[in-house]
Design goal:
This protein has 516 residues and is mainly alpha-helical. The protein is 68% helix and 7% strand. The strands form 3 sheets. Strands 1-4 form a two-stranded antiparallel ribbon. Strands 2-3 form a two-stranded antiparallel sheet. The radius of gyration is 30 Å and the shape is globular.
Length: 516
């Protein structure tokens, strides 16, 4: 699609703030979800701060040519959990988070050095459009379940205790199981999500000027307003089914980010059951390094995707070396503050596609706002209170755009050729089917599995084609050389004949002149 604002364009000040808020809302849920899942006192606001720092580092390395925001990576959830496993102290756990992020970042740096000398042509060979297109589509489709599931959820929960009777070794055992359950009606949450989605669509399709470029902001605010009305009525009438937004979060606001490096200085480095410090660091290395190679595949897919959207190959300029360095070093810098390794976000890419705004200045402003807002407790808390159903409504469109942008890469691919058809089919089924591989704490995601399998299938179906094409190319080169030689000889002969004819004509002309 045609960008309203290109990479080098700069929107007006007011528009710039709104565009940046839209980007921030797009990446917010995933960025703060990672530290909330890991727990152990990790701070969502610190993760937001780290994402802003990491993005600025990335922009510096890519010479402000790549409009992508970096946020907390879900791929490293298992790795981050390993940092706190084995009964280690909190101080050592946070040190492990930072050391692990440095290990992962160094993988990117090493790959970047290899790319610097080997070039990027190998990327196009092993990951052509027939491979990378459906893989990008899988990035969006793999998130579809999250978006649809969120449509039916609010943020207000209560603890419910159930009595469960079991037979153990022939004896009846009664257990009390406490679980957290959502209190609002899922259908009411679904209604709020649909309203959010509808407003987003209307603004994007029928809106004019600014409204057309910030459909996410308007959609989220509209859905939030409707959910707030229902929640207010629910509190007034003591009806739990109407309570969607958890306003009680404002009672326990975190007024400043608890940076990941701070707990390191607050206690002792107790290793617990993991043995010595050396063995602990080895465990962290094993947990982080393999995952970095998996995320590298998604790095390629994200940059291929954004390149197709802005119609400019970022793997050539600023180049894969710079994007890798930006991602790797940015991830290290972000983890020092937020504890979470960062990665390029598909949500950010989707936001660029829907809004038509590829301005890098917008991404830079988003990063600055993320840093500033991490210190503004009411704002961070407000973002945390946005109910899942409202974010789900936006993400239905957001993840869908990611999937469609991947399918658009297949427009020039001949799917009538079984070789291409097999590659695309295998990638789509592996990705949609949720193929994952687990090696201890290491999980190869469905996106990485689909991409790796697609690369292997593409190599398999093109073995003979490569040999034939090489012979054809050799024959064509010989034919071209022969034609060139014949053409050159003909040109020389023609030139000599013309010279002879000119000489004869001149002599005849002179003879006639003498006779006269």
């Amino acid at each position: 699609m045609k960008m309203i604002y290109g990479v080098k364009d700069r929107p007006k000040a007011g528009q710039l703030i709104l565009f940046s808020l839209q980007q921030l809302l797009a990446i917010l849920a995933a960025t703060i979800a990672v530290p909330m899942i890991i727990g152990n006192g990790m701070s969502p606001s610190a993760a937001l701060f780290g994402a802003g720092v990491g993005t600025i580092v990335y922009l510096l390395f890519t010479k402000f040519k790549s409009p992508v925001f970096l946020g907390s990576s879900f791929a490293f959830l298992g790795s981050m959990g390993a940092a706190f496993a084995g009964g280690v102290s909190t101080s050592l756990g946070y040190l492990g988070l930072i050391i692990g992020a440095i290990f992962a970042g160094l993988v990117y740096v090493i790959i970047a050095i290899v790319v610097k000398f080997a070039g990027v042509k190998w990327v196009d060979k092993i990951m052509p459009a027939v491979v990378i297109g459906p893989t990008v589509a899988i990035i969006g489709l793999s998130l579809a379940g999250n978006a649809v599931g969120d449509l039916f959820k609010g943020n207000v929960t209560k603890n419910v205790t159930e009595i469960i009777a079991k037979i153990v070794d022939g004896n009846a055992v009664i257990e009390e199981v406490t679980s957290s359950q959502m209190v609002c009606s899922p259908y009411l949450a679904f209604l709020c999500g649909l309203i959010t989605l509808a407003v987003t669509i209307v603004c994007s399709v029928y809106g004019k000027k600014l409204m057309k470029m910030i459909p996410f902001v308007i959609g989220i605010l509209s859905g939030y307003a409707v959910a707030a009305i229902f929640t207010g009525i629910g509190h007034a009438t003591h009806t739990e089914a109407l309570q969607i937004i958890n306003f009680s979060l404002f009672n326990n606001m975190q007024w400043y980010p608890e940076f990941a490096f701070l707990p390191i200085f607050k206690g002792e480095f107790q290793t617990g059951d993991v043995g010595s410090i050396g063995s602990y660091i080895g465990t962290i290395a094993v947990a982080y390094i393999p995952v970095a190679f998996v995320v590298f595949a998604e790095h390629i897919a994200d940059h291929k995707n954004i390149s197709s959207i802005i119609e400019y190959d970022l793997l050539k300029d600023p180049g894969l070396t710079r994007t890798l360095l930006g991602d790797g070093v940015g991830s290290m810098a972000g983890a020092i503050f937020g504890g979470c390794p960062n990665t390029t976000y598909g949500e950010s890419v989707g936001c660029v596609a829907i809004s038509g705004n590829a301005s890098v200045v917008t991404i830079l402003t988003t990063a600055i706002l993320a840093i500033l807002f991490s210190f503004i407790a009411p704002f961070v808390t407000f973002l945390s209170t946005i109910p899942s159903c409202v974010m789900g409504g936006v993400c239905v469109a957001l993840y869908g755009f990611i999937a469609v942008s991947g399918l658009k890469m297949l427009q020039g691919v001949d799917l009538g050729d079984n070789k291409n058809l097999f590659v695309v089919s295998v990638i789509l089924i592996a990705g949609v089917g949720g193929m994952t591989l687990n090696f201890g704490s290491i999980t190869v995601t469905e996106v990485a599995c689909a991409l790796i399998l697609g690369i292997l299938v593409n190599l398999l179906v093109n073995i003979k084609k490569k040999d034939k094409s090489a012979n054809i190319d050799d024959t064509q080169d010989l034919a071209k050389e022969e034609v060139a030689e014949i053409t050159a000889d003909a040109t020389v002969n023609t030139a000599e004949q013309c010279l002879q004819d000119t000489t004869v004509d001149t002599e005849i002309h002179n003879d006639n002149k003498d006779i006269n």
